[in-house]
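Dig into this one:

. . .
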Amino acid sequence: MRKLKIMEHVSLDGVIQPSSEDGFPYADWTAPYRTPAGRDEVLAAHGGRFDLLLGRRTYDMWSDYWPKAPAGPMADGLNAATKFVVTHRPESLAWGPFEGVGPDLVEGVRRIKSQAGPNLVLWGSSTLTSALLEHGLADEVLLIVYPVLVGTGKRFFAEGTPGCSFEFSSTKTTPSGLLLNTYRFAGPLGAA
């Protein structure tokens, strides 16, 4: 059975929005902290071979960049990965290999996880993250924490995400100040 890892770039105040979409005032706030050491840690966290679970917005943003990116470990890994895309328009997908998740996110992800293949990595969707955690489908969360307060923007966990608990797995740091914190999903948060 495949494992599903959620990976996310996040500010100290929980913002994941990386660009100036929707009038967001801080374009590319992660750029000053990008280093070869950070890149190498993120590559290692993906594992040797992996597939991707992507929301349609992330898929569209990435499909504009990664197929044209220079060859290298990150581009090669992302381009080779099967992209399982949550979309109502699978016929419009072009960056492959790809497969639509299907009309039911939970059943689609359960089906994909039950198939033989490399582990799955989810990048960039607070909507998917919340649903996956609510249904116990995420096995691990890697938060790449940047030493900035953004103050506004899309948050890692969407409003209404059910409470859940995690077990600490590991942490790493980079010279630029990034923290790479890994947690294993432990289950719903118990009532006090």
